[in-house]
UniProtKB/TrEMBL annotation:
It is a multi-pass membrane protein. The chain crosses the membrane at residues 12-31, 268-288, 295-316, 322-340. It is found in: Endomembrane system; Endoplasmic reticulum membrane. Keywords: Endoplasmic reticulum, Membrane, Transmembrane, Transmembrane helix. Its main location: membrane. PANTHER family: PTHR13416, TRANSMEMBRANE PROTEIN 43. This is Uncharacterized protein.
Length: 350
């Protein structure tokens, strides 16, 4: 009598432990899937799922379409060139500024007065309240322009035009008057990092020109953009209306996108562990119900149960993940049928 009670209690404990382990496997795979789905839903607002790449990363198969975070200093492979002034600078973007010494109309309350100043666009003096004696030249003989580098790379990836123009910072550079073409060398002289046409640079006159250049400095950046072949470009269809981010320094992904939940780590290990937990639970249930220790049958049942739950969670989500879990489910089902047909379950012997 006591022996039967002991065996009955042992079977009950095995059933409870087995059921808990199966539920633990299902719960683990469900938590992992839910964490990934929540992360991907939030990431899709910024262009899609994101991967971290180091500064020496090279384009790899399977990366196309992903958003990537890369930290490093851009490398200018083909520097921009200002052909009119024969100026070439090792920078991603070179900007030429042209100013003319012109009359400006200044209004303070009801009073109007005029002063000469450097202005980067033609001022139409015909609209002045008192144009007499304050006539400005009609146009600039030379205009301001922006010159982009032919090729800028971060790691093994080329930066697309949008990313190039998003690079932060601006520093004025001093031009070299010795490199000027002959026609401009006769007109311009160097004065305080500017090229000026003034006969007396410290005392400019109406119509004098002042030309300067700004460069985007090379510095450590964190760039997030979409991988398109060997290029990093903006994700034009991103719900946030931007699809890329550029910040100075090494900025963590969650600092750039505070709305992103923390994605689950060790996803593959967690998924394998979920199947093994369910399989161990199934094995305990087999021992309790039929006194059978068929490990393969238990593994098939565990894979089938966990795979079926995961497949339902990934319906309408990641097609690759869905197909993977359907494959696991079918493999588990196949193993279970095979073992059952081999007569692996036998009635308990009394």
């Amino acid at each position: 009598m006591n022996l039967r009670k002991g065996l009955s209690l042992h079977g009950l404990l095995l059933n409870i432990a087995g059921a808990l382990l199966v539920l633990a496997g299902i719960g683990l795979v469900a938590m992992t899937a839910r964490g990934l789905l929540n992360y991907r839903a939030a990431a899709s607002r910024h262009g899609g799922e994101m991967i971290d790449l180091d500064a020496n990363a090279q384009p790899q198969a399977g990366q196309h379409g992903y958003m990537a975070r890369i930290v490093g200093t851009p490398n200018v492979v083909e520097a921009p060139h200002d052909p009119e002034f024969n100026l070439q600078v090792n920078t991603p973007v070179l900007v030429r500024h042209v100013e003319m010494f012109q009359w400006r109309e200044i209004r303070i309350g009801d009073s109007v007065h005029y002063e000469l100043d450097w202005v980067d666009r033609p001022l139409d003096s015909s609209h002045f309240e008192d144009p007499r004696g304050h006539a400005n030249p009609v146009s600039f003989p030379i205009s301001g322009k922006q010159f982009d580098a032919g090729l800028v790379q971060l790691g093994g990836f080329k930066l697309g035009p949008v990313m190039l123009h998003a690079l932060p910072g601006s520093e004025q550079i001093a031009p070299d008057p010795k490199s000027l073409p002959e026609n401009l060398a006769a007109s311009f002289t160097l004065y305080q990092d500017y090229l000026v046409t003034s006969a007396h640079p410290g005392d400019p006159r109406l119509g004098d020109l002042r030309v300067s250049w700004d460069e985007v400095p090379l510095q450590q950046l964190t760039i997030v953009g979409r991988i398109s072949g060997d290029r990093i470009v903006a994700a034009a269809e991103a719900a946030d209306g931007k699809g890329y981010y550029v910040q100075l320094g090494d900025v963590p992904l969650l600092d750039m996108f505070p709305d992103l939940p923390v994605p689950p780590e060790f996803v593959l290990i967690r998924q394998i562990l979920a199947v093994l937990l369910a399989a161990l639970g199934a094995l305990l249930l087999l021992v309790a119900q039929r006194d059978q220790r068929d490990v393969l049958l238990a593994l098939g049942l565990g894979a089938m149960v966990v795979g079926a739950v995961a497949s339902m969670l990934w319906l309408g989500g990641d097609t690759r993940m869905l197909c993977g879990w359907l494959t696991v489910t079918l493999l588990g089902l196949g193993i279970a049928i095979w073992r059952l047909r081999r007569g692996s379950i036998r009635p308990k012997q009394s």
